[in-house]
Amino acid sequence: MKPNYYFITFLFFILIISMLNFLVELNAYTPNHAENSISVMKQATEDFKVVDYPISLITLEERCVDEQNQQVKCHQLQDIQNGDILITKSNHTLLYRHGHAGIVLDAEAGLVLEALGYGTSSRLESLEKWDYYPTVKVLRLKNRTEETISELVERAMSDFLDINYNLIATKTNMNLTHCSDIVWKVFNAIGVDIDSNGGWLVTPKDISQSQYLYEVESYGFSAERPW
Question: Given CA atoms 80, 86, 89, 93 in this order, what sign does their dihedral have?
Answer without folding.
Answer: positive
